[in-house]
Specification:
This is TetR/AcrR family transcriptional regulator. This protein is mainly alpha-helical. The protein has helices at 4-23, 30-37, 41-47, 51-74, 80-97, 99-108, 118-141, 150-157, 159-169, 177-192, 195-202. It folds into 2 domains: 1-49, Arc Repressor Mutant, subunit A (Orthogonal Bundle); 59-202, Tetracycline Repressor, domain 2 (Orthogonal Bundle), CATH 1.10.357. The protein is built from 11 helices and no strands. Helix 4 packs parallel to helix 7, helix 5 (80-97) packs across helix 6 (99-108) and helix 9 packs antiparallel against helix 10 (177-192). The chain is elongated and about 60 Å long.
Length: 204
Amino acid sequence: MTSPRRDRRSEILDAALRCFVERGIAATTIADIRERAGATTGSVYHVFPSKDAIVGALYVDRLRSYQSDLLARASRHRTARAFIRGITLHYLEWVEAEPDAARFLFDARRTEAIAAVAAEIAEANRESFAAMRRSIDHFAAKGDLQDLPMDIFIAVVIGPAAAYARHWLEKESRTEMHRARALLADLAWASVQTKNERNEENEP
């Protein structure tokens, strides 16, 4: 059973997310969050000592939620192509399903509050990247996937999708999301597949 403290924490984070998206992180106050959450001032401060603590906790919470779902999906793929396309597809499907969380993660990176949770973010990324690295190594060993450094892999597979997502969230994209997902997933795969895989796909 979820504890009352956990329920209150989740309620505060959910309320904070709505406030941050509507008002902006800088303009939002503890009072705004308290009112949106239907909480007392004391109950908010009992869980979080400051607005910066809420920003940091929300960032880690939404990041880990995204990563957990991504890894659960990635673990089900049995081919390199499905694995790579699945990463890109999941990212854009998540952005479409959780636009407020996506906007917040983009915006919060530039705030001082994130510095306080840098170690937690680094740990979340280490765990996520380690799991993906195992899959990359598996497919690379079979000759199906280029053995790229992790930072290059993320830049190639997620980078273009993240750039599109920013434009989509700002309603500046010309390509509809469903078409962008398919195009970017195919481009990600084309960027990291091996020559052997490329030749096999081109065979009649």
